[in-house]
Amino acid sequence: AQVDKGGHKHFMAKEIAEQPHVIAEAIRHYLPVEEDAVRLPGGGVDFSGVERLTMVACGTAYYACVTAKYWFEQIARLPVEVDIASEFRYREPPIPGKTLALFVSQSGETADTLAALRYCQEKADKILSVVNVSESSIARESDLALPIFAGPEIGVASTKAFTCQLTVLLALALKAACDRGHLSAEGMAEYATAIRGLPNVLSSALEQNDAIRLAAQKVSEARDVLFLGRGLMFPLALEGALKLKEISYIHAEAYASGELKHGPIALIDKNMPVVVLTPKDALFDKSVSNMQEVLARKGKVLMISDQNGIDEAGDDVWCAIRMPRVKEALTPILYAIPAQLLAYHTAVAKGTDVDQPRNLAKSVTVE
Ligand code: G6P
């Protein structure tokens, strides 16, 4: 079927706005309302005998994997390796027994990811994939393909596929946690309730559109932008920086906040916008102390946090974007919205081709 922009100026804007709806669809499949347990398609997968998970992908899908590593390790206590497909496939990594290999790809056709999957075919116990295109090569060559239900994604820079990948990966991590005895029925029910609330929460995040557009006007004048985050916000910082460089052509880099002192702090001056992703979570105080190091060097801090976080530490920042509060594990899915909107509005302010950025392809099917 022909996909149109549905009244939006760009496919990317439409796809950002669609997220509450498509995520609701993914949630409906993986966490059906009648039960507080994760439901997987086909024969599913049992994590009780699994000793290790290897995740491989490219681009935005890779950052979804990096985020999921935190979930699998923290919630399911399962050791995880994450790698970029082009590195993984040529390194000839050993795949010990009881390893589950998981490949994440929107298109399901990325050449390096497919090659990495084929490398694992005889070696891993089971091949799983998280894909948007169910008829794709990666889906077909997996033992179990988990669809993300994002619908066709036209904008070259991935948005709704990313948050749907995260939603499915979180569900999978919760399944692993239950199978491995690290999550009680009560704990699972709590996650299920929180996840089912996500579509509403994402809708209220989208209401920050105008505030983010104003911030983006200022960001569009920068030559370089730094993104900082800790814990679950670190992979999201990586994704935020990727989005910004892909479509606005502004040089952007992401660092784990704790690494600030080990190099990037040398870059901070009054011309450097620094996006600090910091919900009021367990690591908030540590992120704020890093943020203060930036402020002390006259860096322009764009703080993205919730009301409590902004009240507590937002006095001296250049601008603050307010997000709703959610259960900590869900913050990457929520904070993806302001990261995407910031890239989008910065690109619009610069007048670049948002849906077809120069030199990039939606799906990289050659090496
Ligand atoms: C290209 C696209 C990215 C995407 C990456 C991986 O670089 O421009 O948006 O994240 O490929 O694509 P995949 O289809 O495997 O998720």
UniProtKB/TrEMBL annotation:
* Keywords of this entry: Aminotransferase, Cytoplasm, Glutamine amidotransferase, Repeat, Transferase
Q: Name one GO biological process term.
A: carbohydrate metabolic process
Signal peptide extent: none
Q: Mainly localized where?
A: cytoplasm
Q: Tell me yes or no: is Chloroplast among this UniProt entry's keywords.
A: no
Q: Where in the cell is it found?
A: Cytoplasm
Q: Give every SIS domain span.
A: 43-182, 215-357
- Keyword Transferase applies: yes
Record's GO cellular component terms: cytosol
A molecular function (GO) held by this record is: carbohydrate derivative binding
Q: What is its EC number?
A: 2.6.1.16
What chemistry does it catalyse, as a reaction equation?
A: D-fructose 6-phosphate + L-glutamine = D-glucosamine 6-phosphate + L-glutamate
> Active-site positions, per UniProt?
362 (for fru-6p isomerization activity)
Domain of life the protein comes from: Bacteria
* Residue spans crossing the bilayer: none
The subunit field of the Swiss-Prot or TrEMBL record says: Homodimer.
Q: Its biological function?
A: Catalyzes the first step in hexosamine metabolism, converting fructose-6P into glucosamine-6P using glutamine as a nitrogen source.
Q: What is this protein called?
A: Glutamine--fructose-6-phosphate aminotransferase [isomerizing]
Originating organism:
Leisingera methylohalidivorans DSM 14336
Q: What is the lineage of its organism?
A: Bacteria, Pseudomonadati, Pseudomonadota, Alphaproteobacteria, Rhodobacterales
Q: Which gene encodes it?
A: glmS
